[in-house]
Amino acid sequence: MQYNYKILLNKEDEGGYMVSVPALPGCITQGDTIEEAIEMAKEAIELYVEELQSRGEPIPDNSNTLEYFFNLQTA
Hints:
By secondary structure, the protein is α+β, with helices and mostly antiparallel strands. Helices cover 29% and strands 16% of the residues.
């Protein structure tokens, strides 16, 4: 089975990147570089999904998620 996940990378003020996985609540990790943060996210997602599978719980993903961005300007 193939699952698709969107990850969000946020640059931290003290350095590095924090990564969250919106489809998997509480699935958060970090890395010193973008590349490391992405690798850490892959590992965190794999562990999260393995845990859901071991419990027999449904595995959410972003297969049916549409994404839209807009800019908001305020005065």
